[in-house]
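Most newcomers find our protein records easier to grasp once they have seen one. The structure tokens are whole numbers drawn from a learned vocabulary of backbone shapes. The record below serves as our worked example for the rest of this section.
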Amino acid sequence: MPVVDDVQMPEGTAAALETVSRLGSELTARQPVIDRRLNYLRGHHPLVYASEEFQQYMGDRFKGFADNWCSPVINSPAERMNILGIRPAGETAADKEMQRIWRDNSCDRTSSEALTVMLAAARSYGLVWNNPRDEKTPRITFERADQCIVRHDPETGLGTHGLKLWRDEKKEYATLYDWHFVWKWQRQAARVVPEGDQPDPAVQAGGGWEPRQPTGDDTWPIPNPLGALPLVELRNQTLLDDSPISDIDGTIAMQDAINLVWAYLLNALDYASLPQRIMTGAQPPKVPLLDSQGQQVGERPVELDELMRDRVLWVPDQTARSSEWSAANLDVFSSVIERAIEHVAAQTRTPPHYLIGRIANLSAEALASAETGLVSKTRERIVYATPEIREIHALAALVQDNDAKARAMRGGVVLWDDPQYRAMGQKVDALMKLKQMGFPFQWIAEQYGLEPEEAARVMQMREEEAAKDPIGAIAAEFNRGQPDPAPATGEPSEQDGQP
């Protein structure tokens, strides 16, 4: 057995430690990018100045200002990505047991948060493991993008190792997952190194780790009974590489420009929105210099910074004259901001009325047409997330020791809510036409947007109504299948005996 810190360790410990070090270094390098993207989603934008002079005079005034357009760019598709269930391969209905597990783990909410993070940070993670409190209900959690990383096999694309890395006030913790074991480590949290000091060599080299065996863990490392990697990475769009793209990478630069123009506009409102007075024919004002007895011993010119701040000027010269500049026209600033927002809308396929907020009596058809790009984008993002959602359900089946069900989940169909919003009249009319074409009622109920359990409940209620009045049910079904009668035109027909 290898020896770590004078303690004998199981075989594979050295390789596991090396993997922790490599993945930890990669995750540490990735964290600033993730933090920046999520901060822009939250609205925490550092103001980027166009000149040092403006930053010097106005930096503190606009500190913390943000006109956040990254939020609607992310939330517009994310709020349309709702998971209703999963239908295993070869089945015609959603799996009720998986739906129970999904709800018991509050995945309705946490999956929505994970998909939002996936769009913004380009990655998020799902973790599946056994639940010590309920052996029949696997535990599904969605993890932070800045705390997890998965290594993929370059040939097969399958995940080979997964690392979760986090810390508290005293210690750092690492949990390494592979197909056979779960390795848990801890070490003293690295101290903040003052400038000029040397960091701790053990921490700098990725060392200092010691085994962590929480209460309930009988062995170290823990055997992985799933035979699969329990940590799943949900990745946004990639270019056939390992670098997924954030949906706001291109928006951040325009966001900085919009915030800067707003800062200039607000500054102009303060300085140029009112007429400005000009003094001519006078010497520059000066401030007397006094000694300890209060006697004037000299004078100095008034600093321009003081004049700008106090906006008070006393000129005793009788020859001084004042004139006036008219107030500045600030419409140019708002025009630039609106044009920049239009660029954001075009680049991100976000409907303009989501950002500008102006709707001029548009019909339901016109609104649906305006959202075509967003619907297409959302469906594309659903395609990216679907394989990982299937894998999470497959891992839940493996926790229940059901290999056949896990295979069915990997080939199953994830049921997503319809990402296209329609007016109620439009939706019902379309579904009625589908019913007349012969589509079954349960399929119609699912397309209406009912969750699988709710659709099944509606079918049961429908059957109960039919049992109470079988003749009426047959008549109603017959009438629903008939085409709508042709509208009366007032023209005679051949049935009236006319040619």
Q: What stands out?
A: The first strand starts at residue 3 and ends at 4. The chain has three domains: 1-274+327-421, 276-325, 425-483. The CA atoms of residues 84 and 415 lie 5 Å apart. The chain has 17 helices and 17 strands.
